[in-house]
């Protein structure tokens, strides 16, 4: 009777200890997961706010040079259409 009681006490103690360790590790893992999710949400919110912000200026990477021949060519084209104003 004495040894069965000791084994029962030892099993209960080991079970309680394993339960406490399991609870501790689960809490730490859940806290890490919550932290990661929170950081991802904050990053997404920052990106969304930056996309909605109006831009202060316009950046131009390349400005083509206009030659006098091309400007003359642009002005020559077109057809004149005669029209009359119609009043309602």
Give a description of the structure.
This protein is mainly α. The model has no long low-confidence stretch (mean pLDDT 83). The chain contains two helices and no strands. The protein has helices at 2-52, 68-76. Helix content is 68%, strand content 0%. The longest helix has 51 residues, at 2-52. It is rod-shaped and about 120 Å long.
Give the helix/strand layout.
Layout: H1 2-52, H2 68-76
Descriptive keywords:
88 residues; mainly alpha; 2 helices; rod-shaped
Brief characterization of the structure:
The protein is mostly helical. It contains 2 helices and no strands.
Shape: rod-shaped
Mean pLDDT: 83
Class from helix and strand fractions:
mainly alpha
Q: Which spans of ≥5 residues are poorly predicted at pLDDT below 50? A: none
Largest sheet descriptor? none
Number of H- or I-type helical stretches = 2
């Amino acid at each position: 009777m004495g040894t069965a009681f000791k084994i029962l006490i030892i099993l209960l103690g080991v079970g309680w200890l394993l339960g406490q360790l399991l609870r501790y590790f689960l809490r730490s893992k859940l806290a890490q997961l919550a932290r990661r999710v929170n950081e991802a949400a904050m990053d997404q919110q920052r990106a969304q706010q930056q996309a909605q912000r109006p831009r202060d200026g316009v950046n131009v990477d390349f400005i083509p040079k206009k030659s006098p021949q091309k400007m003359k060519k642009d002005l020559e084209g077109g057809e004149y259409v005669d029209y009359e104003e119609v009043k309602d």
